[in-house]
Amino acid sequence: MKESTVKKLWSVKWNLVIMAAFCFAYAVYIYVTPAAGGEGTFMITPTAGLPGLLKQLPWIFIGLGVLGIISSFASTSGWVLAWTEPVMGLAMFVFGFWELFFPYDISVFSKTYAFIGIFMAFYVMFVSLHMDRIGKGHWFVELCLAAVTWIVSFVNIMNFAGEHATQGLTSLTFFIAAWGFTYGAIILTGEGSLDESIASPVRFFRARKAAKAEKAGNAGKVKAAA
Fold it and tell me: Measured between alpha carbons, how far is 8 from 14 in angstroms, rounded to an integer?
C-alpha cells in the first residue's frame, strides 16, 4: 500500500501542479493588492502597489523555472510534447534572470502581465495538444481555456477596459490559466514515461534518417526499373 502510494506520488505531473497552485494563489494575491500601495488585505502584499508586483516578477519566474525543470525530471510521467515542457521551465528561468538585471522591460503593469498571460496561454495550449496527441482527456476543453486566457490577455494589453480594470483582468488571467494547468495535471498524471520523453529527440532523428534511407532506396529502385 505504501509503495503504491509513493509510486503514485512520483507519477504526478508536479510541474503542472506547481503552475496551477501558483496561478490560483497569485490571482488572489494580485486581486487583494491595493493598486495605489499601502497594506493589503492580508498585509503581505507589496506596499508599493502594482509597481511592487512588477518588482517581484524576476524572482517569481526564476523560482518557477527552477521548480518547473526539477519537477519535470522528478515526475515519472512523460513530458508535455516531449522536450517542450522543460524548455518552458528554462524560458521562465531565463526571463526572470534577464529581468533581474534589465527591469525596464517590465515597467508597464498591463503590458507585462498581458505578455505573461499569453505565455501561459501557449503553455496550456501545448498541454491540450499533448492530450490530443496521446488521446487522453478532452483536449478541446483545454484548448478553450488556453484561448480564453489569450483573449483576456489581449484585452489587457490593448487596454480596452481602461487602467482601472487591468488589475482585475490580470487576476482573471491567472485564474483561468490555473484551471488549464489543473485539468492538465489531472489528465496527464501517470501518462507516458520520463525515459521515453528524454529519448524522444533520438527517436525523431532515427525515424527521419530511416525515412530518408527508404526514400533513397525507392528512388534507386525506380532508376533501376527505368
Answer: 11
For the chain, what is the radius of gyration of the CA atoms? 21
pLDDT tier at 81, thresholds 50, 70, 90: confident
The backbone torsions φ and ψ at residue 120, rounded to the nearest 5 degrees and listed phi first, read -65, -35
Asked whether 161 and 169 are in contact (CB, 8 A), the reply is yes
Q: What is the pLDDT of residues 155-191, one digit of tens each?
A: 888 877 666 688 899 999 999 999 999 999 999 998 8
- Cβ–Cβ < 8 Å for 154, 114: yes
Per the CB < 8 A criterion, the answer to whether 99 and 61 are in contact is yes
Residue in this structure with the C-alpha cell 527591469, named with its chain if needed: 103
Grid coordinates given for 55? 518588482
Q: What pTM, to 2 d.p., does this model score?
A: 0.85
Sign of CA pseudo-dihedral 127, 132, 138, 143: positive
Residue range 62-66: mean pLDDT, rounded: 95
